[in-house]
Design a protein that fits this description.
With about 350 residues, the protein is an alpha+beta fold. The chain has helices at about 5-10, 15-20, 70-90, 125-130, 135-155, 215-230, 250-255, 260-265, 280-290, 295, 310-315, 330, 340-350, and strands spanning about 45-50, 60-65, 95-100, 110-115, 120-125, 155-160, 165-170, 175, 185. The chain folds into two domains: about 5-115, Phosphorylase Kinase, domain 1, CATH 3.30.200; about 120-305 and about 340-350, Transferase(Phosphotransferase), domain 1 (Orthogonal Bundle).
Length: about 350
C-alpha cells in the first residue's frame, strides 16, 4: 500500500476506524502533500496520521506501507516492546499500542494499526542547527542525550537506528527517541532485524544479523559531533539535510582519511594519526574494525548472558495490550535528569584544561 492508496480509504472509513481504536471524539484533518502524514519520506515503512481531539492530546495513527513491517513476527515484537516500555515507565520513547482493523476497501483484509502518543518536538538535527552558536545549549542537549541513552540501556533496550532524524527535543527540555521498528529488548530472542538504520549513522559492516550493541556507533558519532560543535560552530555552515547530516558513508568507511573527522579532531585540539589516547580515536578505530569488535574498542564491558524469556509460544499467546494511555502518565510529572556519562565528563575536563 502506498500513501496515495491509504488516504481515500482512511477518509471514507474514518468514523468507524477511530471508534475501533477507542478514539471517539477524534478526527483526522486532511491537508498537506500526503494528507496529514507526519514527515513521510522515501523509504518510510509506515504512513502516519495525526488524530486530533478538542480537549485531549493528539495521537499518531500509523499504517504500514512496507509489507515486511506487517508480518506477524514483527507485530509480536512490537507488542512485546510496547509492554516493556510501559513496565519500565520509559519517558524517552512515546507510548504505543498495537491494534488491527478491517478496511472494506483495503487490499489487505486485516490491517495492523499502531496508535502512538503524538510527539510534538523539535527534530534533533534542527535543534543542533538552531543552537550551533550557543555552547551552553549544546551542552544541555548532550547531557539530555546521555541521559536518554543511559536510561535506555539500563532498562535493557537497544535501538538500531539512532540518528538526528529519530530524536526529538521536547518542550520540557528532554529528548524523545522514535522508530519502534528499530527498538528491541535483551529479553527477546531476536535473530534478525528488518532494518539496519541510516548508513550515515551506522558501522558500514552492520547487517540485519547483528542484533546487539546497535546503539554504540550512532551514539558515539552524535556525541562527538555535538561536543566538537560546541567548540566550532562552523561545522554547520549551512542548514543541514535531515538525512545526509554531516557524515557520509565514505567518512564512516575511512575515518582516518575523512575531512569531516579531521574537522572534529581540529575542534578538539587533536591531530589525526597522533599517538595520544582519546575516545574519538577509539570511535574511528571501531569504524575501521569488524562490527563484532566495536564494544571492546569502545570500552563496553561484556554482560552476563541473559536467558531469553520470550519464545514463539509466549508471543503467540500474548494478550492484547492494555487500553490506550493518556500521555500525561508518561510525559508529565517530575523528571530525573541524570549526570552526563563518561564522554561528557571527559569533555568537561578537556575544556577546563586538565591534563590527562
Amino acid at each position: 500500500m502506498q500513501p496515495s492508496d491509504w488516504l481515500p480509504i482512511v477518509e471514507n472509513e474514518e468514523g468507524a476506524f477511530l471508534r475501533s481504536l477507542g478514539l471517539e471524539g477524534y478526527s483526522i484533518p486532511v491537508g498537506g502533500a500526503f494528507g496529514n502524514s507526519l514527515e513521510y519520506r522515501y523509504g518510510a515503512a509506515w504512513i502516519v496520521f495525526q488524530a486530533v481531539h478538542p480537549s485531549k492530546p493528539s495521537k499518531a495513527i500509523r499504517l504500514p506501507i512496507d509489507d515486511r513491517f506487517a508480518q506477524e513476527k514483527h507485530l509480536q515484537r512490537l507488542n512485546f516492546v510496547a509492554k516493556k516500555l510501559d513496565e519500565c515507565g520509559a519517558d524517552w520513547f512515546p507510548s504505543f499500542t498495537m491494534h488491527s482493523y478491517e478496511f472494506a476497501a483495503s487490499a489487505h483484509p486485516i490491517t495492523p494499526v499502531m496508535v502512538m502518543d503524538w510527539v510534538d518536538g523539535e527534530p534533533y538535527w534542527l535543534a543542533l542547527w538552531n543552537r550551533r552558536s550557543s555552547p551552553d545549549e549544546l551542552a544541555h542537549l548532550q547531557m539530555q542525550f546521555s541521559r536518554l541513552v543511559t536510561e535506555m540501556v539500563s532498562a535493557g533496550f537497544d535501538h538500531g537506528d539512532i540518528s538526528v532524524s529519530n530524536l526529538r527535543v521536547m518542550p520540557y527540555g528532554g529528548l524523545m527517541l522514535l522508530d519502534p521498528d528499530a527498538l528491541s529488548h535483551k529479553e527477546m530472542n531476536i535473530k534478525r532485524n528488518l532494518e539496519v538504520g541510516h548508513p550515515t549513522w551506522n558501522h558500514t559492516q552492520r547487517k540485519p544479523e547483528h542484533t546487539e550493541h546497535l546503539y554504540l556507533i550512532p551514539c558515539e558519532l552524535l556525541t562527538w559531533f555535538t561536543v566538537a560543535l560546541q567548540l566550532n560552530e562552523n561545522l554547520l555552515q549551512e542548514k543541514p539535510d535531515s538525512e545526509e547530516f554531516f557524515f557520509t558513508e565514505e567518512d564512516l568507511a575511512d575515518p582516518f582519511n575523512s575531512p569531516r573527522f579531521a574537522q572534529l579532531c581540529n575542534a578538539l585540539g587533536l591531530q589525526v594519526g597522533s599517538p595520544v589516547a582519546h575516545p574519538l580515536f577509539n570511535l574511528m578505530n571501531a569504524l575501521c574494525a569488524d562490527f563484532e569488535d566495536v564494544p571492546e574498542l569502545l570500552g563496553v564491558h561484556a554482560e552476563e548472558p541473559v536467558q531469553p524469556t520470550v519464545t514463539i509460544d509466549y508471543l503467540l499467546n500474548l494478550k492484547p495490550p492494555t487500553p490506550l494511555q493518556s500521555p500525561t502518565t508518561r510525559l508529565g510529572g517530575s523528571r530525573r535528569v541524570l549526570k552526563p556519562v563518561s564522554l561528557a565528563r571527559e569533555f568537561n575536563r578537556f575544556r577546563s584544561g586538565v591534563k590527562r
